[in-house]
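Board notes (copied after class):
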Amino acid sequence: MVDLGWTGGTQYYDPTVTQSPDGSLAMSYVVMSNGVYVAHCPAGGQWDTLKRQISNSGYRPRIMRHSGGTYLYAYHKRTGTTYEYDVFITTSGNLDDWSEHMRMTDNMNSHDPFVCEMFDSAYMLSYAKNTAGVYNICCRFSYDAIDWGEEYIITEDNVNNTQPHLYIEGHDEYITYAHAVNYPDNHDVYLEELNYLTGIDEPVEIPGDYRLSLGSYPNPFNISTEISFNLGNAGQVKLEIYDILGSRVCTIVNSELRTGEHKYRWGDATIASGMYFARLQVDGVTEVVKMTLLK
């Protein structure tokens, strides 16, 4: 039994734990009618009894520690009547001082948040959201836990999918969730591979005579950015833009180009803020650069 400092009879539940590189642990949990909390346990030590309150109302809290040292805490709380909830997040570097809470959904029908770090260091927030009358799993990404990209729908079923969890091994990502075969009495657990950046090839070692030197400036950018590269030899060149889920946004060039420096300006007023990737392919050689759009 874990002593978190509460008196006997207190109802606290729904814990999740994240581990830091030094072996210490941080745990999120709910206290009935009191909100959501976090506790800390040093490596090999005992859990503290400080009862750090994150929010005075909330359910299903989830905590993760980013490789950069930032804790991301997510939970859902009531934003309307009895069953109307939205997802909120907050961040901290030390578990004591937390940022202003950000409301991540606004449909008053979202819950079950889960937070994790992707293989490219992106923060991922997933949650169940009511879309077209049923719950499906949605997600958003950020590289600083402040500026978040647009919402993506991971599942698109005509039955309810809830309680997402992510498992990541190397560059392979898997999502598990509860799938309601016959809501509310009959559920199965589904496990699926997540299509995250799979449309973007991994960069390979580039022969010296290509000298691709792919880059963009400014980066981050607000309206547009200039993408440049050098070709040591003339060749067939394809330059494409992808979003964070690996979907192609556009093709900038797909033709034979001469030796030397090439520059292309890219920007699109219709796309959302977030992370994008320029992928350059020259005669089978690939190079990728990350670009951040901040509107």
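Comment from the instructor: The first strand starts at residue 12 and ends at 19. The two ends are 48 Å apart (CA to CA).
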